[in-house]
Amino acid sequence: MEANIYLLTELMENSDESNPDIKVNESDPTCIFFTSGTTGLPKGAPLSNKTYILAAKSICAIPLVNKKSRNYTCLPLFHANAQLYSVTGMRCLGASLVLSDHFSPRNFFNKISKYKATYFNSIGGMMQILDVTFGEEDVPEHTAKFVAVGGTPKELWERFEKKFKVDIFEAYSMSEVPVLFGNFHPEKSKRKVGSFGKPIFADLGRETKIVDDHNQEVKAGVGELIQKGQDFMMKEYLNAPKATSEVFDADGWIHSGDIVRKDEEGYHYFVDRKKFIIRVAGENVSAFEVEDVVNSHPAIEQSAAIPVPDPIRGEEIKIFIKLKEGINDVNMEEIIEHCAQRLAYFKVPRYIEIVSKFPKTSTERIQKMTLKNEERARECHGWDRNKEIPDWRNKYYNIK
């Protein structure tokens, strides 16, 4: 089919000042966000005008965000983070925005200072890259006071705040439910490291809860996060009734697919994607937790943990690692020892493979399903802890 192409200059030249008087309702769809595609093909999530604006305003729950704020973002505008929490959030406030066209770790803080930004938006991968780019003494002077971010590993959190002299305000959302959860308490002592906080606008009819495998609510503990409330989420996936029926239950709750821990005070902590929980001899292991520990090794820039089928234990853990710039090799036994000092024995990776790069989405998220599918076709899964250190359990845990 041939497309009709119109030049903006021609449209403007032929336009007039008459008002088309088009009425817009708050329930009308205003945009379609596509899911990141880390666990499968991206799906379109249409959002209404009201949901879109509530999502944008939810960033304003950060106590330091106000009309004098100047936000810096280098994230792409097709992504909800930049579009909602930077551009539209600042427009709702009448505040300032600095929009960069790419992420440059070395020039990042120079740009922030050049444009006098008071804070910046980030995703977890950017935080890790900035952390490995700069040493304690290498961080340039800058004007940012805090960062609004989703997905900061606990191991990185306090180190990042100290090194870059910023406060971290952790948040959580999904393309389907873009109104934020936020760890936004005005008093820093009451912000819990590792938590993405509580749901914003819970007083406006938004419902959230944690449920177990039988869909029973868990008041405090671990389970899947589900949400409800027509003003806060999409009504369906675009032209995908099967996918819609898989994510919504009979009572209208949308299932996130995220395993979350909720504490006694109502603070939420990300555990892992439900599809990335690794079952090792009947034990549930969070890939996110394993990666957090592996990434804290001084030679490692980034990692990805995936399950590998095992005929006896069901699944074993494989970790892919990318080394920091300038480091060409690492002692695998040192990585196992590093993990053993910080993880239960059944969470220590069995297989390790060094890679030069990861398959990633356009927003820098590792495509773990690609790694997982490729691994299924392989007979050799890389360096094998059981072969190279046969007495590792006794050596590190005194378990024979």
TrEMBL record:
<dbReference type="InterPro" id="IPR045851">
    <property type="entry name" value="AMP-bd_C_sf"/>
</dbReference>
<protein>
    <submittedName>
        <fullName>Crotonobetaine/carnitine-CoA ligase</fullName>
        <ecNumber>6.2.1.-</ecNumber>
    </submittedName>
</protein>
<keyword id="KW-0436">Ligase</keyword>
<dbReference type="InterPro" id="IPR000873">
    <property type="entry name" value="AMP-dep_synth/lig_dom"/>
</dbReference>
<dbReference type="InterPro" id="IPR020845">
    <property type="entry name" value="AMP-binding_CS"/>
</dbReference>
<feature type="domain" description="AMP-dependent synthetase/ligase">
    <location>
        <begin position="19"/>
        <end position="238"/>
    </location>
</feature>
<dbReference type="Pfam" id="PF13193">
    <property type="entry name" value="AMP-binding_C"/>
</dbReference>
<dbReference type="InterPro" id="IPR025110">
    <property type="entry name" value="AMP-bd_C"/>
</dbReference>
<dbReference type="Pfam" id="PF00501">
    <property type="entry name" value="AMP-binding"/>
</dbReference>
<feature type="domain" description="AMP-binding enzyme C-terminal">
    <location>
        <begin position="289"/>
        <end position="363"/>
    </location>
</feature>
<dbReference type="InterPro" id="IPR042099">
    <property type="entry name" value="ANL_N_sf"/>
</dbReference>
<comment type="similarity">
    <text>Belongs to the ATP-dependent AMP-binding enzyme family.</text>
</comment>
<dbReference type="GO" id="GO:0016874">
    <property type="term" value="F:ligase activity"/>
</dbReference>
